[in-house]
Amino acid sequence: MAFEEPNSIHTDIAVMKKEVEGLQKVVEKLDVTIDKLSDLTTSLDKMVLMQQAHIEQQSEDDEEIKSKLAILSERVKRIEQSKWFAMGIAAAIGFVFAQMEILKRFFS
Q: Domain segments of the chain: what residues?
């Protein structure tokens, strides 16, 4: 029995060495996976930052468009008011000229 024990111990040590080698391979693969995940996280962070910058720029552009639209709306209102004012004056002048003809005939 004493003789079999050293063989058994050698066998156990050989099995453990194989298991350790297998675990080392797994650990190496995990390290590679962790590195890839770190790279992916960095890329995603950059993409998120770029997306936020685009959103902020879009918001600024929207505000500028709204401002310009308000200015254009005000200009259109003033043009319409001027048009109706001019039409009113033209109608008044036309009425006055029409009355002048009637007055000339009445006094003639």
A: 1-76
